[in-house]
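Re: beginner question about structure tokens

> Can someone show what the tokenized structure looks like for a real chain? I only ever see the sequence side.

Sure, here's an example I had lying around. Input first:
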Amino acid sequence: MKDETRIDDAPGVNRREFIKRTGAVAGASVVSGGALLAASSDGWAQGLVAFDAATGKALLQMCRDLYPHDRVPDALYQKVVDLFDAAALKDPAMAQMMSDGVGELNAASRRIAKKDYAATPRETDRVAALQTIEGSAFFGKVRGDMIAGLYNNPDVWEVLGYEGASAHLGGYINRGFNDIDWV
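And the corresponding structure tokens:
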């Protein structure tokens, strides 16, 4: 049996409150435990340039926790972390902010769960760690850049069932305005 607690099983914390606190624009279902994420991201994280693998995995887990979609594969979240990596390579101040931010997140996670953030299997523990840093510039940067980085990706649109822009096709009225079945 997995050692995983979903946010909607936690007393006093519900998904709506978490999404409201993090500023997320959409929330579907919750990501799997950190152990599965770590196993699937080892090779990808080794290819990062500005970040070490541990920082990359922590950022990936943070992105999944801030914008949780079970149906969206890690590869699409990894593309956003790759953008962070490329930006950090060009901007030493951003690289330092990201490194320091992950350090703070890991410290919070170790206080709460006795493990670094990406290695923490219980979602409620990861959310508690995120809540300790939610006022930081690092948290705001990741949260804000994730909106465009994830939701402006046509591959994510396909997974979520969004058909994309429609103005050039005459709008949505005659193109399945009411055909979304997941709302």
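Each token stands for a local structural state, so reading them left to right follows the chain. The two ends are 31 Å apart (CA to CA).
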